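Re: the 292-residue chain
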Amino acid sequence: MLLNPYRFGASALPLLDTYSGAVAAYSTARKLKATATNCMRVRRSSDNAQTDIGFSGYALDLSALLTHAGSASEAVVTLYDQVGTANLGNSTSGNQPLIVSSGSLLTVGTEGKACAVLDSTDYLDSSASQSSFGTAVSLTGNAAWSAFIVHKKTTNTAGSLFGWGNTGVALNACGYLDDGSSATVAFAGGNPFVTTVPSNNTLYLTTIIKAAGAINTSTSVYRNGSSVASTGHSTGTPNIDGAYPLYLGRWATNYASNSLQGSVQEFIIFAGDKSADRAAIEADINDCYGIW
């Protein structure tokens, strides 16, 4: 087990000060970059009062969060991008994921870290701060990228973890859709491919690594450190223009009926192929959340 500062108080750099290239990074539990000041903005159910919650050392400031909540519930209004590209938020109270329920912190995993709980209507997106996410971070066309997401689903009826793209149509978007019968990774202009389906009520770290080149070239998917899918095929012409937001808990604009029902704790996107660092990044994330 690695000596992770989020558990043991050891002296170490936050994850993204060790591994470069992140274009967006969100966490409900910890500081991912030393320069990050706020983790999230929350709304109290009793009076709709909002406040920013920062960090206590490397961890989410639980004292500030629970003090603000009192006996009420807290919903996530904004999940701050610790890289600074695009905050994820939702201005509609009925679509904001919960992080505190009636004064009790919502957690998942053996380490008991906070999580954002989403039902069939909850999601966060970058439309307020950066609508053209793919364009902003050069993740269009043939770009290489890598994504790491800590998640759990509670039902087979829906499960879009994340996505961005021009229309939300499968072949024009980048994202990961798990509807319980299939778990599909799709890329603009190329054939989507199906991975093994994750189980309900199980915490996972899903890693997707797409190498540079034509869409779906040398793309691999890992779940809890083990390979679950890979593809080398490529069809179509990459045509994603990145004009639509980055979504968390939903797959792009046209997938409102496939929102995630479950929880999310961490989501990091790198511009580039992080194959060489994959195992080390996964170990760091696992050490924090106790996933496997």
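The chain has a mean pLDDT of 84.
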